[in-house]
Design brief:
This protein folds into three domains: 167 residues, no CATH class; 78 residues, SH3 type barrels (Roll); 197 residues, no CATH class. The chain is built from 14 helices and ten strands. The relative contact order is 0.09. The protein is rod-shaped. α1 packs across α2, α1 packs across α6 and α5 packs antiparallel against α6. The protein is of the alpha+beta class and 448 residues long.
């Protein structure tokens, strides 16, 4: 088969097989060059070939020593040259991507030559018998036949045009993109060597929503995307997922965990602003206030997943001791009401006694001054009747007893208030001395 067909066929075959290995040969000119070199290098044993003319001294030696389609068209040459290439690449560049593409290009040359009438001795020098594909010689191509070579060239040109999305996305990515379901996205996410940008179409009620974001987590239960305005959870409870299309962006998705110990609140606020956060676990030596999406909470420890817009603040202790919430014993108020009633009753009794004495004095005065015997007799009867009426004697011991109980309760309240005041001063002192410090771990989401 001629050089143009080896080049175009090598690109198609390498791109096709590379798609199964997530090797995109269209990603770099170096990859295309490696494919072309691999597709042409076996013909270095033929002086009239394109690569044979470039390396003519080597070509002449190999042709004179082994002949055409012998050692350079064998599996030994393919794997041997690949191993040498891979060692050099891994030593200087710490990767073997280009050498793998070279191997597929070399393999494409052998496959295409197997489809010719002559075939190739894959197991040379152990077996010199040619390997062919297919077995029927009438179904194979003749090298140099213009009609056959043109048909093959056109076939590979058309194939390369239509297979470009497959080359770029990889076989499994293209397969998963075709179905566009959460299940296929999860499959692509877990085996993808790089990060995925997901374009989605979902339905909420009657509203169609479209968007895109970096896939952080994917499963049948839900998909978590990192968008410009934060994290977005796509799940079946909230949306009807119509389509999720993954595409590789060539960046690594890294989950980097950082441990921190006794850092200040300012350091913590700086830390949480660095990268998007997958998980945050921390505890503090005292209660603190934190805001998430402008919602405030007070606690001593937190455990958050995919938090957004975090801000932490210390809780200030008031220095005004009058702000102490103190509630006196409710019995005191009850006893005071009872004491008030007793004083009222005492005053009433004293008033009645005074009124009685005044009335008696008035009647007696009238009795002595009156000259009318009948009037004096009537007045006398009134005096005797009024003297028989006994005014209730008030018991002052009840007042003394209540006053004593109230005094004891007030003394207890005073001691209780003093204890609370001392406790508040202690808390205030500790708050001044002890700064709020935080210990825990944070897992960042980094695109590199």
């Amino acid at each position: 088969m001629t050089a143009p067909n080896h080049i175009i066929g090598g690109i198609v075959i390498t791109g096709l097989f590379g798609s199964f290995l997530n090797l995109n040969i269209l990603l770099s000119p170096i990859y295309i060059a490696s494919t072309i070199v691999g597709a042409l290098i076996p013909d270095i044993d033929y002086t009239k070939s394109t690569i044979g003319k470039i390396f003519r001294p080597i070509s002449k030696y190999l042709n004179r020593r082994f002949g055409h389609r012998t050692i350079t068209h064998s599996l030994i040459a393919m794997f041997g040259s690949f191993l040498l290439f891979a060692i050099i690449e891994s030593t200087f560049f710490d990767r073997t991507t280009t050498s793998k593409i070279y191997l597929l290009g070399f393999f494409s040359h052998l496959v295409l030559d197997m489809m010719t009438v002559q075939g190739v001795p894959l197991f040379y020098p152990f077996l010199r018998n040619p390997c062919v594909l297919p077995g029927n010689p009438n179904a194979r191509f003749k090298t140099g036949n213009l009609h056959s070579e043109t048909l093959i060239f056109c076939f590979f040109c058309v194939s390369m045009i239509f297979l470009q999305p497959l080359f770029q996305n990889g076989f499994w990515t293209q397969y998963n993109r075709y179905f566009g379901t959460p299940k296929h996205l999860a499959s692509e996410f877990h085996k993808s060597p790089d990060a995925l940008n997901v374009k989605y179409t979902v339905k909420k009620g009657t509203e169609i929503i479209k968007g895109n974001g970096i896939c952080i987590s994917a499963s049948d239960a839900g998909i978590i995307l990192l968008e410009e305005n934060g994290f977005h959870l796509l799940n079946r409870e909230k949306y009807t997922i119509l389509e999720v299309i993954p595409e590789h962006i060539g960046k690594q998705l890294i989950f980097k965990e950082n441990q921190f110990f006794n850092i200040s609140i300012d350091s913590l606020n700086s830390l949480v602003q660095k990268y998007p956060i997958q998980k945050l676990e921390l505890f503090a030596n005292q209660s603190f206030e934190y805001f998430q999406n402008n919602i405030s909470s007070t606690t001593k420890k937190i455990n958050l997943k995919y938090p957004e817009e975090l801000f932490f603040r210390e809780i200030k202790t008031s220095s005004d001791t009058t702000s102490i919430l103190f509630f006196p014993n409710p019995k005191t108020q009850t006893l005071q009401k009872q004491l008030k009633n007793l004083f009222h009753q005492k005053a009433k009794n004293e008033f009645l006694l005074l009124q009685k004495e005044k009335t008696l004095d008035s009647l007696k005065q009238y009795f002595y001054n009156s000259k009318n015997i009948s009037e004096k007799e009537e007045t006398y009867n009134k005096i005797k009747t009024l003297e028989k009426i006994k005014t209730p004697v008030f018991d002052n011991s009840k007042i003394d007893e209540l006053q004593l109980k109230i005094s004891e309760l007030k003394k207890m309240d005073g001691n209780k208030y003093l204890e609370q005041k001392l406790e508040a001063l202690k808390i205030k002192k500790e708050a001044v001395i002890n700064e709020t410090v935080f210990t825990g771990s944070i897992t960042f989401i980094i695109l590199n």
